Amino acid sequence: MRRRLDPILVLALGLGAPGAIAGVDPLLEDAPAPRQDKHYSTRPSQRQPAPPPLVMPPPRVEVVVPMRPAPRPWPPRPWPRPWPPRR
């Protein structure tokens, strides 16, 4: 069975205007239908189970968070107070 291509599709595929190539109308062959198995076996598969996939451990990522420096201690309080004089 042959099927005519849509003219817009022909232009989109870059095949030129339909019928412009030496007067040949672009036609597409239908692909053969995939083979249909008549019946499927109900017996379990005799194949060996596939080995487990090799899973790489996730890479270790060290996250460095910038931290504020420790607060500096207050300077020592002057003692006795120089001013005002205590009474």
TrEMBL record:
Keyword entries, A-Z: Signal
Record flagged with keyword Signal: yes
Signal peptide annotation: 1-22
Top-level taxon of the source organism: Bacteria
Region (Disordered): 21-58
Biased composition (Pro residues): 49-58
Name of the protein described by the UniProt record: Uncharacterized protein
Species annotation: Marichromatium gracile (Chromatium gracile)
Taxonomic classification: Bacteria, Pseudomonadati, Pseudomonadota, Gammaproteobacteria, Chromatiales
